[in-house]
Design a protein that fits this description.
about 240 residues; alpha/beta; 60s Ribosomal Protein L30, Chain: A; Alpha/beta knot; 8-stranded parallel beta sheet; elongated
C-alpha cells in the first residue's frame, strides 16, 4: 500500500497543509453541506491546495475508518518517513524516546506534545511498541505530519549512541532523587519515558546518563504518560528561555 488513512477534521487538515497535491484523495461526507460548516471549510481548503476531494456516504467513511472516529473526513496521505538515528540533527536538540509504549492513544498524544514543544525527533524501539496506526494518527491531532520519527532496533543501544554523540540522556523515573527542574536541560538532551504500567526497563535505565523525576506534591503520585512528557518538554522550553 502506497498510502495511509488519516481520519478526523484536524488530522486531515494538517495532512492537506503538509502534503497538498501529494494526497491521493480527501473524502468528505456527502451531506456535510447541511450538517457541518467545518467540513465544508475543510473541503474548500483541500481543493484550494490542489487536493482531489470526493463526496462519500458516512457508511463508506465508517468502512474505511475501521472504528476510528472520522468526523466526516478522511484523507489518503503518503506514507510517513521513518528516519535512522544518524539522520537526526542533534545540535541543541531534544529527542523524546519511548520505552515500549504500546498504547496508540498515548503514542499519538506524545507526538503531539513533542511537535508543539519543538522536539527534534520522537524515537522508539521496533518491538513491543504501538504501531503507526489510524488511532495513533488520530490521537496526534495532525501533529504527526510535522514530526521527525525514528524507529530503532534496540533502544538501549540507540541511547548509548546518542550519549556518545554528546547528548545528555535523562530517564524519567518516579523513584529518582533528582527533580527534573534541577537537571541541566539547556544542552542537547534525550528524554526517555517508559510505559505507564512498568516504567523504564532496567537495561534502558542503565543506558541513561541521569534519572530524574517530576515533582508531584499532591495526593496522586503518577501522571498519564503523555501528560508527563508534555510537562518534561515544557521544562526544557522554560530552561532554554524559548518564547
Amino acid at each position: 500500500m502506497n498510502h495511509r488513512v488519516v481520519c478526523g477534521l484536524q488530522p486531515v487538515r494538517e495532512a492537506v497543509r503538509v502534503h497538498a497535491k501529494k494526497l491521493e484523495r480527501v473524502l468528505v461526507e456527502v451531506d456535510a453541506r447541511q450538517q457541518s460548516p467545518q467540513l465544508e471549510a475543510l473541503a474548500r481548503f483541500a481543493r484550494d491546495q490542489g487536493a482531489h476531494v470526493d463526496r462519500v456516504t458516512r457508511a463508506e467513511l465508517d468502512r474505511i475508518a475501521h472504528g476510528v472516529r472520522h468526523q466526516g473526513a478522511i484523507a489518503f496521505a503518503p506514507q510517513l518517513a521513518i528516519h535512522s538515528l544518524d539522520q537526526i540533527p542533534l545540535d541543541a536538540g531534544v529527542v523524546v524516546a519511548l520505552d515500549e509504549v504500546q498504547d496508540p492513544q498515548n503514542f499519538g498524544a506524545v507526538i503531539r506534545s513533542a511537535v508543539a514543544m519543538g522536539a527534534t525527533a520522537v524515537l522508539w524501539p521496533e518491538h513491543r511498541s504501538a504501531p503507526l496506526s489510524l488511532a495513533t494518527f488520530r490521537a496526534s491531532a495532525g501533529a504527526i505530519e510535522h514530526a521527525t520519527l525514528c524507529r530503532v532496533a534496540s533502544l538501549p543501544h540507540a541511547l548509548g549512541e546518542l550519549g556518545a554523540r554528546g547528548m545528555s540522556v535523562i530517564g524519567l523515573d518516579a523513584g529518582a532523587d533528582l527533580p527534573l527542574h534541577s537537571a541541566n536541560l539547556t544542552d542537547p538532551v534525550t528524554l526517555v519515558v517508559g510505559a505507564e504500567d512498568k516504567g523504564l526497563r532496567k537495561t534502558v535505565k542503565r543506558a541513561c546518563s541521569t534519572l530524574a523525576r517530576l515533582p508531584m506534591p499532591g495526593a496522586i503520585g503518577s501522571l498519564n504518560l503523555s501528560v508527563a512528557v508534555a510537562i518534561a518538554l515544557y521544562e526544557v522550553v522554560r530552561q532554554r528561555g524559548a518564547s
